[in-house]
Design goal:
158 residues; alpha+beta; Cytidine Deaminase, domain 2; four-stranded mixed β-sheet; 7 helices; binds zinc ion; guanosine deaminase activity; tRNA-specific adenosine deaminase; APOBEC/CMP_deaminase_Zn-bd; CMP_dCMP_dom
Amino acid sequence: MEKNKEKYMREAIRLSLDKMRAGYGGPFGAVVVRNGEIIAYGFNQVLASNDPTAHAEVDAIRKACATLQTYHLSDCELYTSCEPCPMCFGAIYWARIRKVYYGNTKQDAAAVGFDDNFIYEELKKPRQECRIAMEQLLPEEAIVAFEEWSKNPHKSEY
Ligand SMILES: [Zn+2]
């Protein structure tokens, strides 16, 4: 088992190198593993796709969910070449991934220009004090969709 963990991590690391060299984006790779099998290969594509959300972990989660036709990956593990950023951290929780292994730390990432610590700091602040302004608007109209959702007996809870 120990050997396999290293094998999966080496795949994530290989992707981080190969796809960075090919110009897709930053040096980040990830794989999703289920029952000892890699079911999705993800890599950073922020530059190539002009998509700031195209991080390796999100890419791998999307591909794994598409392959398994599910929105939960509770029987899966994620191997990522770097400790997840706050966005991917959230995606991992939404996907209910069982366990995450990472190679580089966020401190390693910060040292080469990928510093996400400011986002962790922003998350702790009241919304009104965040660097990007956030203001509530039309709550009495927005709530209608929530009321309809909560009353629907046929909804799929997730
Ligand atoms: Zn990320």
